[in-house]
């Protein structure tokens, strides 16, 4: 026993010494090596990261991620790669890397084998051009041999742990958005090996996924247990074990993903087999999940999904998507339902080759359910394509909507009425080709009722009798009757009767009468965007044929009645703010829709219109119809700036092009986008028009909008105290670019006032700051606007004449320098009254034709070239008595601020013009001073050119002899 006691004590002693030693080492190692580790980690980061890295403090410890020795960085911030160097790529409360202890102690090398990132925000972004912000890692050139002798930091990862991440992946080029909140990830494996298995455990609390702004997942929970074989040489990911759960729906994946130089190649198959309808419903949007909790749902479902092919933006390649959803023997019942929804079955197949919606194939082989005897519904629909759609459909059912609502247990909506439908269609639908499937069918709704929780009063007495017939598959035989469509809302009856025949040349009979409170009816559906007091009052009778208006047979039309709008709020996808129609009184009179009284506002701008529109019937019938019209427009104030597409406003329903342009250019205003389906002339009269701080007063003239372009003709306005006359054209190219041309004439405007108030004058004519007096201008220009609707100067082309009617030019540096060099101080105050200066602009250069003026008894003549950036290459002939016939040459180079003078010289130094790409709206090369060449260089270049010409001539003669 004594001996055993000694052994136990010895073991405890050495165990205690070992633990103490380990604790001592864990305490002392961070003290011994902090400089080495901190220095080498910084060296590694600066050497291998292109994005800007910042953090507050570093720690070296065993205790944060025991038992690993870790370098921890607090308040970590990493910026993106160009052109996103000002945007955050990753921000984290802590980023820690695990250090290989053996290499640190014995080799004094930092080998990183673990990474921990906690409480992080990641923002991965790819813009519309395909430029990504995550290209921050600078890889070593592969053709260089590895340096095995250098000492420094290296990565050999075996573990990655991410805790509490919020990460957003936004790809504008693919129009994909993934937003994950509460992400926790653990990845294990030999991540530094060429080929390794990565074991992944992933949990996400809330996941959003959208494609083309359509959300396919919203606030979903996700759990993934994956094993992925990764080949870093070929950048290939093979999905070996991949079990995924979205809410309650399990999915299993197989396949691979290969990263290519210009995209990726993938072959992924997913399945959720032998699950329940309730599991399937769990992936619906969150607002439907509360309904599912209180509803009895039974039945089986299967989901199959595949994505196969290459994605390459440069080569325009995209993978093929296939999916199938099966639902069998479904049963849905709410506790209060007298009859359940029974025998619910669905078989839906989706095929999307090249992710191209024009090739979209939908095959709904069966959608059916019943609510008891004589109360059932069945649909079989098959389509192929979108613009040209092949359709085969058979829809039939008689359903009591109140019974259906009760069976489903709908809480937010109360719907009633007897719906009976029977529609069969087979053929091709194409608006462009004027094809419509052979169709025979009807839809009847009797004694309908609709009430929601969003508004206390129902829409009631809804009755619809609709019939559709097509006998030969063309628009010509298509007939649609709506007799009647009527309902009551808040004591106001509304009814519409319509009979439309022959959609190649529509023969229409439409009668509409009623009062509709737009704001309140949109509250019924919880829709925002319309003014709560908006009213539409209609009493219309429209009879005629589409071609009667287009061929001028107006006497055959019988269109009459009134349409009154009050306090209506409307938006368009290309404008940042809403239009408010304060009052609109429209009268229909055969071919014309008269604007008898129309007043609207847009932001700070106001508009009063009086006139008419033509082709209104065609516009609503045809998809590509164009509205024609003629109006008188009066306005007290128009602020053009607030029409620029990327300005801030209340409109949330912008086009995807505008939305992406705003995200990618947050500080830009964009340009004004013009509707493409208008052909309208305006006799405009505006008291004040403001554009980028410039006031145009008492504007009068003719304006027109046609095919997405705005034209101004014989238009005049007051600017800086003078009357300007212009003819102009404007056209947008995208939300960020536009082009224009303008011809302008202005008499007797004050140069100094123009210099102070007009940005373009200061930028184009910097010398104007030394000029006082009255000037006239006759000029033509064309060019492009940039993303802030400012002129892009290298794009400008044009020319004209500036008349210096009554001016004083004092202390112009270029002329003063000439005077100083020739001993004539009078050049500081030349006489330029009545001088005409003709110039031509192209590629950021201003070419000045010869003009002569007086300087005391001298007669200088100036010509040459200057640039918008101030470069000079001017020739001056200083004429002396008698009459300037005798003179001597002077060359002026340098810049406006620092001119260089050479007397008795005709050799200047040319300016190479800028290069501008009109398609991309980019300056490829800025103008620059031409290289100085000696006479010997010039002679050699001439001899080389002559020899090249001789060689070319010999080759031509040789080719002719061979023939």
TrEMBL record:
Keywords: Membrane, Transmembrane, Transmembrane helix. Residues 924-963 are annotated as: Disordered. Residues 940-963 have a biased composition (Basic and acidic residues). The chain crosses the membrane at residues 12-33. It comes from the Bacteria. InterPro entries: AsmA-related. PANTHER family: DUF748 DOMAIN-CONTAINING PROTEIN. This is Membrane assembly protein AsmA. It comes from Chryseobacterium ginsengisoli. The lineage of its organism: Bacteria, Pseudomonadati, Bacteroidota, Flavobacteriia, Flavobacteriales.
